[in-house]
Specification:
0% strand
């Protein structure tokens, strides 16, 4: 039964990736949430499912969903020692904080992005570094640092390609 759940989850996740390519974030959210439940039923928690779901939640401006995903990622990191989940939770937490308002600045977001990139680099998490660079690019754009934004955006795209992550590559081009 676990094998069937994993296969169904893979198919749902692939459909979610296709929906992302068409910018249908409601479909991404629905498909990937179902894939996540099937993976969990099989005792798995792939980081890639979290990142695709998180991207959909971000695009849909679902702060509550982002908060729940952040808390779950933090818990997985504490319980398993998988620091990729820590890096992802820090990145998502920073995204949440910058949208909440004045207590968190663009400079805070840039600093956190750099720390997450450094952590992902140490972990050898190329896709995580690409996501961090994408967020750093956004921070540079918001701060009016356009030359740095172009540089980090190109680096994000290259790392996403290196990681073989079409999803992260597409996100880095947005």
């Amino acid at each position: 039964l676990e094998g069937l759940a994993v296969e169904a989850a893979r198919r749902l996740a692939a459909a979610g990736t296709r929906a992302h390519a068409h910018d249908d974030m409601e479909a991404v959210k629905s498909l990937v949430e179902r894939a996540k439940l099937l993976y969990e039923a099989a005792g798995q928690k792939p980081i890639e499912i979290f990142t695709v779901l998180g991207d959909a939640l971000i695009d849909l401006r679902d702060l509550g969903g982002c908060e729940r995903l952040t808390q779950e990622s933090e818990e997985i990191s504490r319980r398993t020692g998988d620091r990729r989940f820590e890096a992802y939770a820090r990145w998502l937490r920073s995204w949440i904080e910058i949208r909440k308002g004045p207590g968190y600045s663009t400079a805070d977001a840039i600093r956190e992005a750099k720390e997450v990139i450094e952590l992902c680099d140490r972990l050898g998490d190329v896709a995580g570094s690409a996501r961090g660079l994408h967020y750093l690019t956004w921070g540079y754009v918001m701060a009016g640092l356009n030359a740095l934004a172009v540089q980090s955006g190109r680096a994000a795209s290259a790392l996403a390609q290196e990681a073989g992550s079409a999803h992260d590559e597409a996100w880095s081009r947005e």
